Amino acid sequence: MNRIYIFPYVLILTFIYLYVTKPFTFLEVILALLISTIMVILFHLVTVFIQGKYLVYQHKRGKNISREKIFLKINKYLKTVNKFMRIHIRVHNLENYDPNKTYLITPNHQSNNDVTVLLDVFKQPVAYVAKAAISKLPLVKDWMALTGSVFLNRDNLREQIGVMQEVEQMLNNKESIVLFPEGTRSFKAEMNAFKPGSFKLALKTKVDILPITINNTYKVRKNFPFKTTIVDVYIHESIPYEKYKDLKTTEIAELVQNIVESKIIYD
């Protein structure tokens, strides 16, 4: 299965409940469905939490944890989350992404759902530079750590320097990294200016830059739960080091932002 299907479990639990409590009314059927749905969702959430804790524990003990298997699990969970949030993802030009190459991946940033969308899109191991607040979310932090992702505290310059050094080392070790050059979410179609400092990593490591455009994730909060949000993800052609090596970081930021902005959908 490429995602978790909760409906069959809900039906089984509902059937068991009604069988035990018969005779039943229409109201009891609705109540049983509601209770069964909550129980199944809670069961899966607890399972994800325990699995994350267990895998982190195994990793700390020195056991070799396959990142490919971790990403298959994450991809499965995130497909379920996106389905629940009524997010329908359409990926354009996936052939521009070569999983055997190393990229600094630079999407625009419309909402928190950008990460869940990209974790659904990429099936191969890709690490993220995420805000420090995510490291405090019990259900998320262990799985993010297992991907090799790092957390950035925007209020601590010394920590930021340390994180950027860690990301530089990861890129040198042939690990692709997702970094949002805007630095924060825009919550709209219009983009914030890309920060030139984000591209120092590319110049230092000489990796290809992979621009990505994400559309409509800012609409999820407004649409959920009554309306489906169509999210279009455009993967642009990568920018090789030879093309940007003589540019200043401000010029690279402008180049990449123009590429990303070329596929932004404005209402």
Structure description:
- This protein has ten helices and seven strands.
- Helix 5 (138-146) links the parallel strand 3 and strand 4.
- It has two domains: 7-58; 91-261, Glycerol-3-phosphate (1)-acyltransferase.
- It has helices spanning 7-21, 26-60, 67-84, 113-121, 138-146, 157-172, 200-205, 220-223, 241-244, 249-261, and strands spanning 87-92, 103-107, 127-131, 150-152, 177-178, 208-215, 229-235.
- It has a seven-stranded mixed sheet with strand order 1-7-6-2-5-3-4, sandwiched between helices.
- By secondary structure, the chain is of the alpha/beta class.
Short description:
The protein is α/β, with parallel strands linked by helices and 267 residues long. It contains ten helices and seven strands. A seven-stranded mixed β-sheet has the order 1-7-6-2-5-3-4, sandwiched between helices.
What is the mean pLDDT? Answer: 90
Count of structural domains: 2
SSE series: HHHEEHEHEHEHEHEHH
Based on the structure, what is the oligomeric state of the protein chains? Answer: single chain
Query: What structural class results from the helix and strand content?
Result: alpha/beta
Shape: globular
C-alpha Rg (nearest Å): 21 Å
Helix content: 40-55%
Q: Which CATH top level class of the largest domain fits?
A: Alpha Beta
CATH homology-level superfamily of the largest domain? Glycerol-3-phosphate (1)-acyltransferase
Alpha carbon gap, first and last residue: 36 Å
Uncertain parts: none
What is the strand arrangement across the widest sheet?
Answer: 1-7-6-2-5-3-4
Number of helices: 10
